[in-house]
Amino acid sequence: MIQNFLTKSTLISALACLSLQAGAYNVSGHITCSGTGVAGVEVSDGVVVTTTDDSGYYSFTSAKKYGYVFYTVPSGYEPEYKNGFNPQFWQPFNHASADSVETHDFALTKVSNDKYIMIFGADSHLARRNGDRSMYNSGWISALKKEKNLALYNGTKIYSTILGDLTWDLYWYANKYNLSNFMDDQVSYGYPMPLFPVMGNHDNDGSVTPLTDSTDFLASRPWRTIVCPNFYSFNLGRVHYIVLDDIYYTNSGTASGTNIAGGRGYTDLVTSDQLAWLAKDLRLITDKSTPIIVMFHIPQFRLNSTFATYGGGTNYATLAACFNGFTRVHFMSGHTHYNYMAHPIYKNITEHNIAAICATWWWTARLQNTNYAYNFCQDGSPAGYSYWTVDGDSLQWKYKSIANNGNAQARIYDMNTVKNFMTTDATAKSLVAAYPSMVPSYSNYNDNAVLTNVFAYDTDWKVEVREGTEYVLDAKRVVAYDPLHVLAYDYYRYRKDGSLTSTFATCTNGHMFLSQAHTSNLPITVKVTDSFGNVYYKTIQRPLNYGVNMDASEAPYDLGDVNGDGLVNVTDVTLMCNAVAGSTSSDFQSTVADMNGDGVINVSDITILINKILNVN
């Protein structure tokens, strides 16, 4: 009798204890690696932020506003990946009610990733139109697979992101292509590496009733249920990454598109909920020298026509203030479909705005009825991505083309041929007349002017221009329209439709450099030195064809570097002599062999090459 009473009493006490614990929290779980708990892992529901204890256990009370629980991948670990690319750092709640108690466990994998590659792409805009999915697969996915194979060969980890606008809200219903279709495509195409995605304005559901207090929250629900949280953080090695959703989607304006309730309007705003969560996230980083990379879609800082940086986001100052005390903060954004670097008054922050995977919404290649190689962004940059090498807390970056110009950093224009085409071709003249404020004729450029587009230019880069071996030319930074995009989009779209879509038309950019040559025929060589001392060359022969395939006529070598090994030396003289004698090797670069630009390679070119090597001009 006594024994039965004690057993019953003990059971009642235990149940009472469990009841008290249940009242204290409604979300709990363990984060483990190989069955052992991992301590100190940040866990959140987007509002509450807590950490795991020594056993890897966490618990907290959640209002379940955002519908999920997620953790911040700790340094030295990776999450599990679904389908090889989709990081499983979050789980949806099983029940919407905060009265429901639930458990969510996560598993980590121990890795050594202080040294790795991070690829930042932006704006894929898949919508089942313009042959976009085929070009995305043959371009972006193919480029990533090559990068992964090279990383594996070098024993290096590799990760990626797309900085928003994975899809295009206008076509979710019209073309039956939404976020679910996008994720399915990544599985089908074999997305080759981890993808930590960022939400863009076009990743919202346009069918949500506009201009209510809940429009933004409801419009982002598909992202939060299909892709991942719209704001979160993770660590890779010694770098802390933060993802924010800086779109406040209002869907304001006149209804447009199939099943679209409004005009898909938005404000570039980081919500107060996110800022509150961000403050809690950053409090857990005690070392203020930790590199912080903040990823969002719409740039917070922009450049004006005098190259000065100004705040563009609605609450950019409030966001910037969150990082007071941190010494190295990089903002990564997309949205604009062109490249620029911004250095705001906040000296600890640099913004990198990255041109688009889709370039001009897949139009320029489509207009040429050709492949991905002819996809150019509105600033003339080739469709591409920012390629970062991370070694501990050391970061280096460069822009890379998705197509066949992987390391191309610049393009040169012979403005004689550009101006001649734009002022004599019947279609070009009609285009300029129809859109005088949008399309330049380039008639105001001097004869023998040379324009260079340095795609990812930053203020500590050096741009040097030479004409033959005789002249060093000034390289004046100017705001200008890129001539190749004027041709590849403006001209061909006008020729096709008789009209031009202003949204996609060429925009001015601030990474153009104007030089005045002395002749019309001497070759032009541009030498670009980036922030890290990497040197890139481009050499052209004049007159240079002005066409959509003009990149193929520009050699990524110094004048006289006929074997393309990065040096101009006696080996090149030997190869030049062989060429004059009628024997050329497979690595002979003829574009940089014509030293005097007379159209033939002969003894005169050998003499000029020898003098260049001897530094005799």
Question: Your description of this structure?
Answer:
With 617 residues, the protein is α+β, with helices and mostly antiparallel strands. The protein is built from 13 helices and 34 strands. The strands form nine sheets. Strands 1, 2, 5, 7, 11 and 12 form a six-stranded mixed β-sheet that branches. It is globular, with a radius of gyration of 28 Å.
Q: What are the key terms here?
A:
617 residues; alpha+beta; six-stranded mixed sheet
Brief write-up:
With 617 residues, the protein is of the alpha+beta class.
SSE topology sketch:
Blueprint: H1 2-24, E1 27-33, E2 36-37, E3 42-44, E4 49-51, E5 57-60, E6 68-71, E7 77-79, E8 81-82, E9 86-87, E10 90-92, E11 102-103, E12 106-110, E13 115-121, H2 132-153, E14 157-162, H3 179-189, H4 215-219, H5 221-227, E15 232-236, E16 239-243, E17 248-249, E18 266-267, H6 272-283, E19 292-295, E20 301-303, E21 309-311, H7 316-321, E22 329-333, E23 340-342, E24 349-353, H8 363-367, E25 384-391, E26 394-401, E27 410-414, H9 415-424, H10 426-434, E28 449-454, E29 462-467, E30 471-473, E31 476-481, H11 483-497, E32 508-516, E33 524-529, E34 535-540, H12 570-580, H13 603-613
